[in-house]
């Protein structure tokens, strides 16, 4: 967690040396993003409940969004990984989909991206649920349990996505699978990775999953 503020300090120093105010903006944004992660405030990035981004967010977080978009497009084009993987009957783990990448007959869409708006056709889904979550994080245990219950109550296939479909979305899918009896806390990650190998929960996500399941 010390790397972002250190990079920001270097950015400020370079701005002073080069006398370029253009370098101040990305350095300030990086420092602000570090604070957002520190206080766990994903909604500070401007994602609205309807899947759109507040107009002010584009001005404030422009460098972050640009970096995220470039990274996302690189993975989309060259990773060879499918957009979505059905990890259990009716449970899809996915990266952020384009309008034509949403499977048919989906009962509910769960969008965990805090850093991307949803495509118009995706957010127009009648059961679209936006839960802005920071990358490498996950919803708090109580919210995670609530989301899993909502997915199960939808009564049909669920499309659960984050930016790349490896962490945030996998955590929610794991909660759904355990609650439905498709897996246990001990074997759910292995089952997920068997079908989508790049899935990997970190310690924070595992702890939240365990706490959500214990409720």
Please give a structural write-up.
The chain is an alpha/beta fold. The chain contains 9 helices and 5 strands, in the order ααααβββαβαβααα. Strands 1-2-5-3-4 form a 5-stranded mixed sheet, covered by helices on one side. α5 links the parallel β3 and β4 (128-133). α1 (3-18) runs antiparallel to α2 and α7 (168-180) runs parallel beside α9. The longest helix has 17 residues, at 62-78. It starts with a helix and ends with a helix. The model has no long low-confidence stretch (mean pLDDT 90).
List keywords for this structure.
215 residues; alpha/beta; globular
Topology:
Layout: H1 3-18, H2 24-38, H3 55-60, H4 62-78, E1 84-88, E2 91-94, E3 108-113, H5 120-123, E4 128-133, H6 141-153, E5 158-161, H7 168-180, H8 188-195, H9 203-213
Parallel strand pairs: 2-5, 3-4, 3-5
Antiparallel strand pairs: 1-2
Helix pairs in contact: 1-2, 6-7, 6-9, 7-9
Unreliable runs:
none
Mean pLDDT: 90
Tally of helical segments: 9
Q: What is the SS-derived class?
A: alpha/beta
Question: Main β-sheet: number of strands, strand sense, barrel status?
Answer: 5 strands, mixed
Helix content: 40-55%
Radius of gyration: 18 Å
Spatial strand order of the main sheet: 1-2-5-3-4
Q: Report the principal-axis shape.
A: globular
Q: Cα distance, first to last residue?
A: 30 Å
């Amino acid at each position: 967690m010390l790397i972002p503020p250190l990079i920001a300090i270097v950015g400020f120093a370079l701005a002073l040396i080069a006398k370029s105010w253009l370098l101040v903006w990305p350095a300030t944004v990086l420092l602000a993003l570090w604070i957002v992660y520190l206080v766990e405030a994903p909604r500070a990035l401007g994602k609205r409940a309807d899947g759109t981004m507040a107009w002010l967010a584009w001005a404030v977080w422009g460098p972050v969004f640009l970096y995220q978009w470039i990274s996302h497009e690189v993975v989309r084009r060259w990773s060879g990984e499918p957009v979505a993987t059905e990890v259990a009957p009716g449970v899809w783990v996915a990266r952020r989909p384009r309008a034509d990448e949403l499977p048919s007959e989906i009962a509910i869409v769960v969008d965990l991206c805090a850093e991307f708006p949803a495509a118009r056709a995706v957010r127009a889904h009648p059961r679209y649920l936006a839960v802005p979550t920071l990358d490498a994080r996950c919803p708090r245990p109580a919210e995670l349990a609530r989301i899993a219950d909502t997915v199960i109550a939808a009564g049909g296939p669920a499309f659960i996505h984050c930016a790349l479909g490896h962490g945030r979305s996998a955590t929610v899918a794991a909660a759904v699978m355990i609650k439905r009896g498709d897996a246990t806390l001990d074997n759910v990650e292995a089952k997920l990775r068997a079908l989508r190998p790049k899935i990997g929960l970190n310690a924070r996500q595992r702890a939240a999953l365990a706490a959500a399941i214990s409720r």
